[in-house]
Write a structure and sequence with these properties.
Blueprint (H helix, E strand, L loop, with lengths): L2 E5 L4 H17 L2 E8 L5 H21 L8 E7 L2 H11 L4 E5 L6 H6 L2 H8 L4 E4 L10 E4 L4 H14 L4 E7 L4 H4 L10 H20 L9 E6 L2 H12 L3 E5 L13 H8 L4 E5 L3
Parallel strand pairs: 1-2, 1-4, 2-3, 4-5, 6-7, 6-9, 7-8, 9-10
Antiparallel strand pairs: 5-10
Helix pairs in contact: 3-5
């Protein structure tokens, strides 16, 4: 990675994003671009005051923050709609990663317009990292939801670069439509063990083939195959494994929503169980 963009609104949520972006920039020896967006609908007097105050505050954070020591930084204060400016800045600086904090809940308005997170995820060509937890150390326990698509392959390669020396856990959640009609089941409606083993044997074969296509697969890459919905399975795995990062592709073959942002990525961004990395299709 050469360029990382972090956008902040100077809140505590954004402070976590700033710290995480600084950690990754130091790890990757990348340039860290820091952006603050001023709403262009405010009066010019207020806008200029916001620009000056934001610049001073960001300079103070960089100077006093221990995580920023040794990190090359640039500060940008822009005017406009946050998600549009973040997307523009990411493209302007060829950002290899965009880092944001969790969004504020604005009630019913979110139902119609979507959050900045979702809009950036849908429109940016750069991967998006949502920082939820305090950035105390580099990531060490990372999960990747895979559906064996090209988008999932890109997500896995990206997670591997960020987690670096630690192995990933690749998770495939499978669902059998109308299984009561198409599969032999017991009295509780669960498919019998023999059928389950047959299905999972085939999935394991696909998983092995998938790992062989990765750019730099870790020799200790872990695999997990579970029946259930992808979001439910990933959230349960995050809790069980105490994961600090979960990564998914922005869309994949089975989980398209309006052919732009996959429902798995959308749901994880709406209620992140830990830090979430969303990788677009290259």
């Amino acid at each position: 990675m050469k360029n990382i963009l972090v956008a902040t609104d100077l809140s505590e949520r954004s402070d976590r994003a700033m710290d995480r972006a600084a950690l990754i920039a130091k790890q990757m020896n990348a340039m860290l671009h820091i952006a603050y967006v001023v709403d262009d609908e405010v009066t010019s007097t207020i806008a200029l005051a916001c620009e000056e105050n934001a610049t001073v505050e960001l300079q103070k954070q960089i100077k006093e923050g221990a995580l920023f020591k040794g990190v090359k930084t640039n500060i940008y204060v822009e005017f406009g709609h946050p998600w549009k400016k973040i997307t523009e800045l990411a493209e302007r600086h060829n950002a290899d990663l965009v880092v944001l904090g969790t969004h504020r809940n604005r009630g019913l308005l979110e139902l119609f317009s979507g959050t900045t997170l979702h809009r950036v995820a849908k429109n940016s060509k750069s991967p998006l990292l949502v920082a939820v937890n305090p950035a105390a150390k580099n990531y060490s326990i990372a999960l990747v939801g895979v559906d064996f698509s090209e988008c999932a392959r890109h997500a896995t390669d990206l997670a591997s670069r960020i987690v670096h020396e630690h192995p990933l856990t690749l998770i495939h959640a499978y669902h059998i439509p109308f299984k009561a009609l198409t599969m032999r089941a017991d009295e509780h409606g669960d498919i019998i063990v023999r059928e389950k083993k047959r299905i999972e044997k085939e999935i394991r074969r696909h998983m092995t083939d998938f790992i062989s296509t990765l750019t730099d697969p870790h020799k200790d890459t872990h695999k997990s195959i579970t029946e259930g919905g992808p979001v439910t399975v990933l959230q349960a795995e995050v809790t069980a494994r105490k994961a600090d990062l979960v990564c998914v592709g922005s869309h994949g073959k089975p989980w398209l929503v309006e052919a732009v942002l996959g429902s798995t990525a959308y749901d994880l961004l709406s209620n992140p169980p830990c830090d979430v990395l969303v990788a677009p299709l290259r």
